[in-house]
Amino acid sequence: MSHPIVEYTSPSSWALIEDKISPFAKETLAKLIKFMEEDVYPAARVAHAQLPTDPATRWKTVIPVLVDLKAKAKKLGLWNLFLSKAHYPQWGVPLTNLEYACMAEILGRGGQLASESVNCSAPDTGNMEVLARYGSPEQQKKWLVPLLNGEIRSAFSMTERFVASSDATNIRTSIRQEGNEIVINGHKWYISGAGDPRCALHLVLGKSDPDNSDKYRQQSIVIVPANHPGVKVIRPMQVFGYDDAPEGHCEVIYENVRVPLENLVLGWGKGFEIIQGRLGPGRIHHCMRSIGAAQYALDLLLQRVTDPAKKTFGKYLYEHGTVVADIAKSRAEIESARLLVLSAALQIDKAQAKGALKEIGIAKFVVPSMACQVIDRAIQAYGAEGVSQDTPLAAMYAGLRTLRIADGPDAVHIQQIGQRELKRAQAVTQRHNEIKKREKALADKHGVKAHL
After folding, report:
1. What is the mean pLDDT of the segment spanning 94-102?
2. Per-residue DSSP letters for 98-152?
3. Is the entire prediction scored with pTM above 0.85?
């Protein structure tokens, strides 16, 4: 009997990795699919309706149906699926990154609601990994445990309003020691999670040693309680008009915020090391979910173009123009991108995120663009309805388009991968020249002159 995942992905991609998936993971994946189908996907409209439109209450609301979903997920053991015991023995679950990739694709179909219902939503996932890997025992007890239990939420505070934050060395937020305290001053924006009433902490990146000759040792990360004096959430920023309440993406000012020395994560000058460790897994998690979003968009496209109520000029939509070609291209692009993501996940399992930088980088600039293209085709098929609030397509497009900027813009990843490839040039040329030598020797031996 085939696994239910093949109904959402493809028999061929599952066959490629099935022998690498443990019995526990297969059972968990089947259980997750059932939970999504029976509880989470049907709850999307209820969750949307339960979030007030009045700004006075919108940012103070914990969506009731989400609370119910989290409680059920926890009972089912569908919790913290992203945190692999192989990398985090004390805190993780017995799942590999490859196994989680299959699950994240299913979560990607249900957006933020699906991920948060099983405590696998950004930015908490990355923050939990930071605290699990780099946090002190005291920091883990105070902040990590409540995050793992889904009792609080968090924000990761890096991007700044007045500098090009895609280069983390440009960060200007000041982090300095005064006696037994750390003082933080800075102006951030697009800080995901900072608007949530459950947000209890910000992980703040800033410069602690701006004169250090090593520009990658100038930054540090500090834990700042969300309700601490001097922390000012100015406004929720919009993304294509969406505010993504209640967690949001906020503009935040830190004005003379004072926290104890023990709130420093890992040590002075370790900020860049931490963000590299954090962003690698985070990037691939986004790509995993993006595959699911693209697959869902293709499913919606198929429904639309075969709907007899939506015939035009006496024909089904699929009988017009390039619709069939669009479907075929979408299927091919999703299959190709999925293999990239699975390859990256497998490499993380083998060599951790640092050993999978190439695979993660390629997936990061390929997958979101692919997903945007697939969603755009679905929007076109739906016409005006596709850009309205009556389908999830417009919101999905906004989120996926943002991913081409978040966690490093496409241009940065493309540049890095190109430079990495150029390092192969000398070895490639040497191998080519060796073959040419053998070719000439063979031609001389047989007394022939090459025509090519």
Report:
1. 96
2. HHHHHHHHHHHTTHHHHHHHTT--TTHHHHHHHHHHH--HHHIIIIIHHHHTTS-
3. yes
